[in-house]
Amino acid sequence: xxxxxxxxxxxxxxxxxxxxxxxxxxxxxxxxxxxxxxxxxxxxxxxxxxxxxxxxxxxxxxxxxxxxxxxxxxxxxxxxxxxxxxxxxxxxxxxxxxxxxxxxxxxxxxxxxxxxxxxxxxxxxxxxxxxxxxxxxxxxxxxxxxxxxxxxxxxxxxxxxxxxxxxxxxxxxxxxxxxxxxxxxxxxxxxxxxxxxxxxxxxxxxxxxxxxxxxxxxxxxxxxxxxxxxxxxxxxxxxxxxxxxxxxxxxx
Length: 252
Ligand SMILES: NC(=O)c1ccc[n+]([C@@H]2O[C@H](COP(=O)([O-])OP(=O)(O)OC[C@H]3O[C@@H](n4cnc5c(N)ncnc54)[C@H](O)[C@@H]3O)[C@@H](O)[C@H]2O)c1
Prior knowledge:
seven-stranded parallel beta sheet, binds nicotinamide-adenine-dinucleotide, oxidoreductase activity, oxidoreductase, NAD(P)-bd_dom_sf
């Protein structure tokens, strides 16, 4: 690990209380960034912040629900007049519900976090990056943006949509020095499965057929590595890319 890779940079990481977001906050801080760690889970955030600060890093824990515009505004205001890195990581699953069984509540909740949450925060951060003429945005998408066997219809659709958001930001803001890329993990050892129980057994059985071809789950830091690289100057020519980080699952 290069402890100076992000030296002096200011980074916002959502979903930082758990899993990939937590690993990303820890990695960016270890690589020199001052991290604003955001999540709805205050206890988890405190644990992330304490792990970072006890290792000599700089971290501010900010309670932020990405579905709430006032939380987004407060987070961006707290980060200050310069934001170098935005890692959109917060996301939720959808109970593996196929289209014929999905309810409006699940659909709306999944889209509100996985798509509109990313839109809200990115929209708030872009003017700050524009003002300094640079910035790197990395959004955690999913292998579910290129296939349908990893989740139910709401999650898969939200991840396909957020892949479009990633590219749109890259296309329109690349000329202003802002890069936007996505990381598409396969299965990762996090808490996401514990927060969303499968509700349609036959659809889960069908999803398992797709999962049979996947390698053992990755660890969150393996995904954080890719996020950090995309956020760094080493990836200065990479804009609008959707990086599969799934150990080959999508090739099946
Ligand atoms: N774990 C996997 O297998 C996997 C695979 C592909 C993509 N992903 C994506 O990775 C991202 C991170 O998920 P994870 O696997 O680390 O899950 P996780 O459940 O361990 O962590 C997700 C975090 O997001 C937070 N969060 C949820 N709703 C929020 C909201 N409204 N506002 C702010 N924070 C909120 C949670 O509190 C939690 O801390 C998600 O976007 C997910 O879709 C995960």
